[in-house]
Specification:
Layout: E1 4-6, H1 14-20, E2 28-33, E3 36-41, H2 46-52, E4 57-60, H3 61-64, H4 73-85, E5 90-93, H5 99-107, E6 111-114, H6 120-124, H7 128-154, E7 156-158, E8 161-164, E9 167-168, H8 171-184, E10 187-188, E11 193-195, E12 216-221, E13 224-225, E14 234-239, H9 245-264, H10 271-284, E15 288-289, E16 302-303, E17 308-310, E18 317-321, E19 334-337, E20 340-343, E21 347-350, E22 353-357, E23 362-364
Parallel strand pairs: 1-5, 3-4, 5-6, 15-16
Antiparallel strand pairs: 1-2, 2-3, 7-8, 8-9, 10-13, 11-12, 12-14, 17-18, 19-22, 20-21, 22-23
Helix pairs in contact: 4-5, 7-8, 9-10
């Protein structure tokens, strides 16, 4: 088996973190073989590397013979020399490797293979420890959602928008409250979604400006631990004030689809079958999807995304619950189930739980109510 060379694309490079147990912006890692690996870092990072990394050896750049030849070239030449010293002239690299490093490694004379599935199987199967890390992040997500919803529940309605403490209640204010709570608990989620209507009909709209009353607010929080780097993922939809009949119907359909998806998950089931079952529920309730064969009536609210995805060091990783996912789920996969319906001009509804695939079903890491009523979260 060819050695592995990893150079992080940034501190959030999940392949690098998985291989080394160490999140860092700049470093070099080489795995020559099982139990024979080395992490090379700067004086700035060496003590942290010695305390946190799982590598057999941790070396300073100078100890490894590093020479400053400028961006990309320095690490590439160092990697090539260290590999040749052990009799290797080829290596495997992560698809996350920056193009500049890939080119520099090849210029340095190495035969480089980009392994698209590097660590995919290993990262999919979560150990009991990894499962505990994800559950802890899911608890943090739940607490952050409750913090946001508690603010919504306390708000007054003035001219169709929400006010709290004599100021308009905005997505930005809610984001700040959730971020503060997460930060105090050792988690971070800079791209969370707290989106009011009608803009939340765009599933990845992050949220902007005042929150409207009598319309859905989608809250999607997927925190990562600053210590373990594992994510949780949780979405709830609430309405402050009178709930429109169509939103109530959409919510009931999404909730039924969520339960159907969860009930269909177990080791051996395919992501496609789970997704198609969710789509069928939505179509049976009079809605549509963008999945071929489950288009529905062609008008009204639709689901325009997959049913779910894997969660771990990345918030989106394998496996996928979507129409093209024909491969079976495995015991130890951690996945989300997150059906949604969206109608431009009105808004959207999405509900998301995260849990683990087991031999007999789905172990749900999520305990939070799915109610539309903010008061039910308090």
């Amino acid at each position: 088996m060819k050695p592995i060379v990893l150079i992080p694309s940034g501190e959030g490079d999940a392949d690098f973190t998985y291989a080394t147990g160490f999140a860092v912006e700049s470093a070099l890692y080489i795995r020559f073989g099982e139990g024979d690996d080395v992490l090379v870092t700067s004086p700035l990072e060496i003590e942290r590397a010695r305390a946190q990394s799982t590598a057999a050896r941790n070396l300073l750049l100078e100890e490894a013979g590093h020479e400053d030849n400028g961006p990309f070239v320095s690490y590439a030449r160092l990697a090539a020399r260290m590999l040749r010293e052990k009799g290797h002239d080829s290596a495997r690299v992560s698809p996350r490797l920056q193009a500049g490093y890939l080119e520099a490694l090849r210029v340095a004379g190495l035969e480089v293979e980009v392994e698209l599935g590097l660590f995919e199987a290993e990262r999919r199967h979560k150990s009991p420890e990894e499962a505990r890390f994800i559950e802890a992040s899911q608890r943090a997500a739940e607490e952050a959602v409750v913090e946001v919803v508690s603010q919504l529940a306390q708000a007054d309605i003035r001219d169709g928008t929400l006010w709290l403490d004599e100021r308009p209640l905005t997505s930005e204010r809610l984001y700040a409250r959730a971020s503060l709570l997460l930060g105090e608990k050792g988690f971070t989620c800079p791209d969370m979604i707290i989106a009011g209507s009608p803009e939340c009909a765009m599933p990845h709209f992050r949220g902007d400006g005042p929150i409207r009353a009598g319309a859905p607010v989608i809250i999607d929080i997927f925190p990562a631990s600053r210590t373990t780097h594992y994510h949780g993922d949780l979405t709830r939809t609430v309405v402050v004030g009178e709930v429109p009949d169509e939103i109530r119907r959409m919510h009931a359909a999404v909730l039924q689809a969520l339960d159907a998806g969860i009930e269909s998950i177990k080791a051996g089931a395919s992501g496609r079958d789970v997704h198609n079952g969710v789509c069928q529920v939505l179509v049976d309730r009079g809605y549509g999807t963008t999945t071929k064969g489950f288009e529905g009536p062609g008008t009204g609210a639709k689901m325009n995304h997959s049913t779910g995805h894997g969660v771990g060091l990345d918030v989106h990783e394998e496996p996928s619950l979507r129409g093209g996912a024909v491969h079976p789920l495995h015991e130890g996969d951690v996945v989300t189930v997150e059906p949604g319906l969206y109608l431009m001009g009105l808004g959207g509804v999405r509900i998301e739980d995260t849990g683990m695939v087991t031999r007999v079903g789905f172990k749900n890491f999520t305990t939070l109510t799915r109610s539309l009523d903010p008061r039910d979260y308090l």
